Amino acid sequence: MGVFMEPMIDELIKAWDVGVWTYDRATESSFKMHVWYHYSLHDFLAYGLFCAWCVHGKFPCPICKEAVRFTWLKKGGKYSSFDKHRQFLSLDHPFREDIKSFTKGVKVTDPKPHLRTGAEVRAHIDALVPNQDGGFVGYGEQHMWTHKSGLTRLPYFDDLLLPHNIDVMHTEKNIAEALWGTLMDTDKSKDNPKARVDMAELCDRPKLEIRPPQPGQRWKRPKADFVLTSGQRREVLNWIKTLMYPDGYAANISRGVNLQTLRFSGMKSHDYHIWIERLLPSMVRGYVPEHVWLVLAKLSYFFRQLCAKELSLAVVTKLETMAPELVCELEKIFPPGFFLPMQHLIAHLPNEARLGGPVQARWCYPIERCLKTLRKKCTNKARIEASIAEASLREEVANFTTAYYKPNLPSRHNPPPRYNAGEVESTLSLFKGQLGSTSGSTPMRLDLEEWRKITLYVFTNLVEVAPFIQ
Known about the structure:
Layout: H1 2-17, E1 20-24, E2 29-33, E3 40-42, H2 44-51, E4 71-73, E5 78-80, H3 118-126, E6 164-166, H4 168-183, H5 193-202, H6 230-241, E7 257-258, E8 263-264, H7 269-284, H8 290-306, H9 313-331, H10 341-344, H11 349-356, H12 365-377, H13 384-402, H14 448-461, H15 466-469
Parallel strand pairs: 3-6
Antiparallel strand pairs: 1-2, 4-5, 7-8
Helix pairs in contact: 4-7, 7-8, 8-9, 9-11
C-alpha cells in the first residue's frame, strides 16, 4: 500500500506548499487553495497497513504501541488484552490492588501509558535500523513497525492530533458479535473449553474451572452466570421474533430466528449496532445476575452515548473516565479469551471522540453503503472498473434526462410515495402524519387482550378523549 500511496503523498505535499488554483463560483474569481491531510478511516486491518504498524502479535494496538504488551493464551493460541487496562485507571483506584478478580496474585502499579505525539512517532520511525533480511531490527520484540509510512513526509505531520481513526462501526460490530455468541452459547462463543483452561491458569475462579471427571463420567463445563440456558434462549428468540421498529429505524432481524435449532443468523453491522445499544439491556434482564446486567447495561450506555449525533465536552470527559473502568468490569466477568484487540480499543474511543468529534463523520457506514452501490453496478466480472464506470455514466445520463419528464410521470426526481398520500386524513390528533404503507394489506384477527391494549393506547394518547376521562 505504501508504494501506491507515494504519488498521492507527493500531490498532498505540493497542494500544501504550492497550492491549487480553484474557481469560486460565488465570487466568479480564482484563488489558490491549500489542501492538507485531515485523517484516515479504515477497518482495523487496513488501519495497520496504512499507519505501518502490524496489528497482530504481542503489540497489536497502533495507539499504545509497545507500551501495552498483550498476554499469550496457550490453549487459545492467540494474544489477549486481558488485565491490560488497570494501568489506565487512576493510581488510587481499588481495581489496581485487586489480586483475585483479574490475574491472580497480581497488583498493578504501572502508570497510564504515554500516547505519542506526531513528532515522537516521526522520531521513532527515523530511529529504526534496517535489517539485512528485510524489515527493521527489533521487530516483534521491541516494536511492530513494518515499513516507513509516507505520511511522515508531510511537513505538518508533527501537528496532526488524530492522523488515523478507529472505525467505531467495525469495533462495535465485533464486540457485539463476540458478546452475542458468548451470551447465547453459539459456535462463536468465547467461553469455550480452551478459554476455560486458559482462565484456570490466569484467574482465580475455581467455580468455572473444568475439573477431571469421575471414572465412567464425561467432561463437563460448569455453567457461567453470563450464559443463558436453553429455555432462556428460546424465550429471547421468541421475544426477538415479535419485535417491531419505527419505519426505517432498523432491519427486520426477526427473519433470522430459527426456533427449531435455537439459532439466529443474518445479523449485519447495523443490526449489531441496534442490538448492543437498544436491545441488550432488555434482553438479558432477569436472566443474568444483577452485577452482570449492570455491566452489560453500562456497555450499552457507553456505545449509545459515543454514537450520539451531538457530543458535549462533559459527556466525553465522563466517557474517558468510564471506558477503562468498563473494560475492567468486563474482565471480572468474562474469560481472558473474550478480550481481543477490539475490546481493548474501547479505552481509546472517547479520546478520539474528543479530537475528531461525533462518529457520524468518522465511521464506515456511508463508505460501506457506497461500496455496495458500486458493487451492484458491476455486471461484468472480467472488466470490473469499466463495468462500474459505464453503469455510472448511464445513471448520470438517466438522472439528467428524467429531470425534464412531466410531473405526473414517476422518476428519480418524482418518486412514487411510500405511503398512501391520497387517503382522507382523520381529524383526530392521534392519526395525523404519515398514513398506511402503499403495500397490500394483511387481514388479522385480534384477540381480547390485543383489543384491550389498543383501547388503552387510544385512551392514553388521544387528546380528544381526555375531557371525558376527567
